[in-house]
Amino acid sequence: MHDNYMIFPMETMNVTQTYLGKTSHYPHTTGTPKDYPIDIAGADSGRSAVFCPCDEMKITAIKGVGNPNITNTMWLVSTSPVITPTFTDIAFMTLTHQNDDDIGRFKVGDVFRRGDIIGYEGTDGATANHIHLVCGRGSSNNWTESTTGKWVITGDTLPPENVFYVDRNFTKVKNSGGLSWRYLVGKPTVRDTAKDQLEISYSDLIARTGPTTSAPKLGYIIMGIYDNLGSSQSDGYTWYKLADEIYVPSNGTWVKELPKQTEGDDPKVIEQLQKQIELLQQENATKEQQITSLNEQVTDLTTKLQSCENDIPDTETELYQKVQEQAAEISSLNQQIQSLQEQLQHCQEVPEDEKEQNCKVILTCQNNNQYEVELYEKNSLKYQINKY
User: Within this chain, do residues 167 and 24 fall inside the same structural domain, yes or no?
Assistant: First the structure.
């Protein structure tokens, strides 16, 4: 079951006593506060099982175990909202008369899930196997004494037919006790894209044995996915066939058609395309960030360039000074060379063994740079200058 319906908790419904009429339960419903107990038994006089009626329930209280003066009772509350015939909310139920060896296995806080056996019919405080069942909306964990002297369950107690659906797939009705139960029919399946299917999400949709409002009612269709076995028009509705002798009407909103999909409509392909789109969007966002960063860099460089342009006159002055310094250095060097030439013109005859040797002189300029001057044709006073 896909949705969290609250269903009758036994495989056979055999209501042996209700909250109506002049029975032992009568004082429970006529005092203040009050509750609405029913006695339920299984298919026979044995000890039939009581099952968890919704997705999950937790024990909130256990009383009476080992105490002959208190009848064994267990309080259970759903851990999430349940769908009932009259509300969708947290719900509770109490089970009374379980035997010690049954109820004594559990403790407050224990959790049951749909289909788990909570316990069995018993005879603690009773003469025959059965369960005294009380239920309601919200939470509960105690008794209180009413104005009629009966110990009733605390909380927002309600008639059981207002809290439990009867799932025809799970429960066989032997005796309804004359109460107006709401029955659930249908067996939802899973989505199969190779089939034409239907999705039903309306909780009060009544199924019938034929495609007309005059056909007998079967109960309320369980919400979920069904195979679409055909449709027809009648009594102002579109009638869909869900199974043999199970039809539901639609006014255009109660039932959604789910056509079978072609290969191009394959959800896996669509999912892959969506992922590719997400990746492209991420890449685009990254590129936009990069563009923003580059724009910031361009702005920064533009600012620096403007600053450099403002500094050009100073830079030209520095270059002019360097040129002047180099010119002065060259002038100093030329003066020293000229002085050297004049000295060589007045020098005496050079010895024979030195004639073929070049004359080298180290000159020092005003800025302390040193140069090597090599004279290699004395008569013509030709020379070569090298940085020392």
Answer: yes
Distance CA 274, CA 286 (A): 18
Could you tell me if 222 and 184 are in contact, meaning their C-beta atoms sit under 8 angstroms apart? yes
Are 52 and 115 spatial neighbours (Cβ–Cβ below 8 Å)?
yes
Task: Write phi, then psi, for 242 (nearest 5 degrees).
Answer: -100, -30
Instruction: Tell which residue, 245, 221, 115, has the closest CA to residue 165.
Output: 221
* Rounded (to 5) percent helix, strand, coil in the chain: 25, 35, 40
- What's the pTM? 0.67
- Residue 348's pLDDT is what? 43
- Residue holding tokens 């990746």? 279
Q: Is 103 left (phi over 0), alpha (psi -120 to 50) or beta?
A: alpha
Which residues does residue 169 pair with via DSSP β-bridges, in sequence order?
none
Residue holding tokens 């639609």? 250
Assess whether 268 and 329 both reside in one domain: no
Average pLDDT, the chain: 86
217: left (phi over 0), alpha (psi -120 to 50) or beta: beta
Domain count, the chain: 4
Q: Which token pair is 356?
A: 């073929």
**Segments of the chain scoring below 50 in pLDDT:** 347-350, 352, 354-356, 377-383
Segment holding 133, helix H or strand E: strand 131-137
| Tens of pLDDT, residues 253-308 | 999 999 998 766 666 767 777 888 888 888 888 888 888 888 888 787 777 777 66
Residues 51, 119 within the same domain: yes
> Domain range for residue 130?
12-183
